[in-house]
Amino acid sequence: MEVRPDFSVVIVSYNVSAYLKLCLHAVFKAIGKHTVEVWVVDNASTDDSVQMVAECFPEVRLLANTENVGFSKANNQALRLAKGQYLLLLNPDTVVPETIFDTCKRIMEAHPEVGAAGIRMLDGDGRYLPESKRGMPTPWVSLIKISGIYKLFPRSKVFNKYYLGHTSPLENQYVEILAGAFMLVRREVAQRIGYLPEEYFMYGEDIDFSYQLLQSGFKNYYIAEDKIIHFKGESTKKGSLNYVYIFYKAMAIFSAKYFGKGNAFFYHVLISFGIILTAFGAALKRLIQAIGIPFVELFAFYAGFWYIHDYWEKNHRFISGGEYPPEYVYGILPLYSLVLMLSIHLSGGYKKTQKLSDALRGLGIGFLIIILFYGLSPENWRFSRAIMVLGTLSALFWVLIFRNILKFLKIIQPDLTKRDQVAWIITNSEHELDICSKHFRNTAYFNEKVLETSFDSYKILLSAFRPDYVLFDSESISFSKAISLAERLQDTSVKMLYKIPKEATFVGDEVVINLSDNIINNDLNDIPLQKRFFDFVFVVFIVPAFFPFLKKKITIKSKDIKDILMGKLHLIGHGEAQKSIVNLSDHIVNLGISNYSFISTDYFARYSPLKDLKILKTLNQIYQKNILD
Question: Where are the beta strands (DSSP E) in 259-350?
Fold first, then answer.
C-alpha cells in the first residue's frame, strides 16, 4: 500500500527568483515531523528561477514550462501528480512560519466538514491583508468593490461584503471565498471537484474553486490563529489597466458560469467602467507626481518671494511710499522661483522615489545660480539682496514641510536604494550584523532575547528614530518570530526586510536588496539630465565668475563650449569602453581610470553634480602637487 506524504506544496512561479528562494527556505524549515513533498511549476520565467531551484533545492520536484500557461493550468500540472493527503497551493512571494503544517493539520482534523482552508495574511510590513477572507462576488458586491464605496464603510456587512469587513480578522471562521495565495485543500475534495478551473488565465480561479467546493457540500475555513507573510509585489500591477481587464473579465466568466449570461453583461459593463476609472486615476496620479508637485512648489516659491517682497517694500525699502517696479515683481521674482524649481528637478528632487537631500541640493544649486545672476546683472536689475535671500529661505522652509506632508500621505515614496541608510537588525548573530554594517551607514543590533524582554521600549525607540529598515535575520531567528514582530511593528511605518538564508540578500514589499551588489541604485535615467545640468551651470556661470582668479589658466575651445551648451560634449567623462552604460565618451577632462567596472558601479549608479565637483577639486590638487614637485 502506497504511503502518502502528509502535505504536497504546489508553488507556481514566474520571474520572482529571490522571493521563491525565501519561500522555499521557509517551507522546508517548517516541515518538522511531517512528510512533505514540494512542487515548483515555473511558467517560463526569464530570470534564474529554474536554475536556482535545481541547484539550491534538489529535493524539489521541478516542472519547467516553455510557455506561460497561466496560474490554473500550471497548478493543475503539479496537482495531478501530487500524492499528499493535503494539497497546499502557495504563492512564491509568501513566507510561512515553522508552525504552519502543525496548525493546518490540527485544524483540518478537528473540522472534517471543511474542504479547504485559508490563512490570515500580512504584507511584508506586518499589516493585515483583507483578501485573506472574502465573500461571494455577486454583481452588487462587485459594483461596491470597483466603485470604492467599501472603503467608506470598512466594517459594513452590506457595503464591504467582498472583504467581509463585518467579521474579525483575528477569529477563526467559515467564509465563502479563499485566496489562491494560500489554499489548503483535502486531496479527495480536489479530485472530486476536478482541481482548478482552467478557463481562467489569472485571477478568478480561487473564487470559482471556492464556490464549487461550497456547492459540493463542503465548507471553507479561515484560519486566524496562525499567519503568513504575503509580499505586496503585485500592488503596482493592481493599479494597471491590464489588471482591471483580466480581473473583471474573470468575474464575467464566473458570473456567466453560475449566475446566468445576463449578469455576464453586467460584468462587461463593469470592465469598461473599471478601465475608464483606473485610467483616469492612473493619469491623475502621474500628472500630480510628474507635473503637480513641481508646479505646486513653483507657485509656493513665488508666493514666498511675493509675500517677502510685499513686507520688505512696505516696512523697509519704501516706508514713505513707492513700490518695486512690475518687471521685478512679475518678471524677476517668477524667474527666481523657476530657477529653484528647475534646479530641484534636475537634481532628482521630483523622481518617483525621492530623497530630501536631492531637493535640498537642488535648492542650494538654484540659490547659487540666482546669486550669480544677481552679481552679473546690470545695476538697475539688482533690486534687493534681502528679498533674494529671504525668499530662498522661505522656499527651504516650504520644501522641508511639504516633503514631509507628501511622505506622510504616501504621495511620494522614500528612496529605498540609497547607500547611507540606517538599519536596525534583529539577529542572534554578530556575523550578520557585521555584513549589514558594511552596507548601511548606521546599524543597531537587537538579539531575540533582549527584544522579547523589552519590546515596548524597542518600539518607542523605533518610532522616535525612524530607521529606514528593520532587517530580520531568517537564519538566527525563526520565521514565526519575524512574522510576529513585523505584525507588532506594523504601525511604525518602517520598511521590513527578510534575509534569505545563506545569502546577503533581503526582500520586502516590492524591493530586493543584495548587499553584495555594488550597484544599489539602478535608476540611470536621470543621470544624463543631471550631467547636462552640471555642465551647463559650470560653463555658463562658474567658469566666467572664477576665471579671473585662476592661477593656471585653463584652455577651453569655443567649439567645445558650443558643444557643451548643445549637449554634444561633457565636461567630465570616460573612455569608449562604457558607452553601453551612459554615453560620456565625448568629454574635456578625462578621469584617467582604467578600472571601468569601478566607474560603472560608483560613478554612474550614484552620480550627482557634487561628484564632478569633487573630481575637479581632486584633479586640481594633483595638478598643484605636480607643479610644486
Answer: none
**DSSP states along 490-508:** GGG-PEEEEEPTTSSEEEE
d(Cα 415, Cα 357) in Å, to the nearest integer?
A: 11
Fold of 422-514: Rossmann fold (3.40.50)
| Residue 114 contacts residue 34 (beta carbons within 8 Å) | no
> What is the Cα–Cα distance from 216 to 229, expressed in whole angstroms?
30
- Identify the weakest region by mean pLDDT among 290-304, 478-492, 586-600: 586-600
Domain ranges of the chain: 7-133+169-231, 283-322+365-407, 422-514, 527-628
Please, are residues 140 and 69 in contact by the beta-carbon 8 Å criterion? no
Confidence band for 413, pLDDT divided at 50, 70 and 90: low
Is residue 612 a contact partner of residue 534, using CB atoms and an 8 Å limit?
Answer: yes
As a three-state string, the secondary structure of 13-78 is ECCCHHHHHHHHHHHHHHCCCCCEEEEEEEECCCCCHHHHHHHHCCCCEEEEECCCCCHHHHHHHH
Q: Please tell me the predicted confidence (pLDDT) of residue 175.
A: 97
All cell numbers assigned to 44: 517560463
Domains 7-133+169-231 and 422-514 share a fold: no
Amino acid at 235: S
Q: Provide the residue count of the chain.
A: 629
Q: Write down the residue that cell numbers 522652509 correspond to.
A: 397
Q: Give the C-alpha separation, 375 to 180, whole Å.
A: 66
Gap between the Cα atoms of 146 and 131, Å rounded: 14
Structural contact between residues 392 and 339, judged by C-beta atoms closer than 8 angstroms: no
Q: How far apart are CA 564 and CA 348, in angstroms?
A: 21
> 536 and 545 in contact (C-beta within 8 Å)?
no
What burial letters (b/e) apply to 511-529, b meaning 16+ CB within 10 Å? ebbbbeeeebeeeeebbee
Distance of CA 200 to the CA centre of its chain: 28
What pTM value is reported for the model? 0.66
User: What are the backbone angles phi and psi of residue 202, rounded to the nearest 5°?
Assistant: -155, 140
Q: Where residue 440 falls among pLDDT bands split at 50, 70, 90? A: low
CB 374 within 8 A of CB 335: no
Backbone φ and ψ for 414, nearest 5 degrees, come out as -70, 155
Determine how β-strand 353-354 pairs with β-strand 413-414: parallel
Share of the chain above pLDDT 70, in %: 66
**Does residue 56 contact residue 21 with C-beta atoms inside 8 Å?**
yes
Cα(211)–Cα(504) distance, integer angstroms: 43
Q: Which helix (H) or strand (E) holds 437?
A: helix 430-437
Across 129-140, average pLDDT: 90
Contacts 24+ apart (CB under 8 A), 607-614: 607/527, 607/530, 607/531, 608/347, 608/348, 608/361, 608/530, 609/347, 609/361, 609/365, 609/530, 609/531, 609/533, 609/534, 609/537, 610/361, 612/531, 612/534, 612/538, 612/571, 612/572
Q: How far is CA 494 from CA 262, 460, 488, in A?
A: 47, 13, 12
Quickly state the pLDDT bin for 425 (edges 50, 70, 90). confident
CATH fold for the domain made of 7-133+169-231: Spore Coat Polysaccharide Biosynthesis Protein SpsA; Chain A (3.90.550)
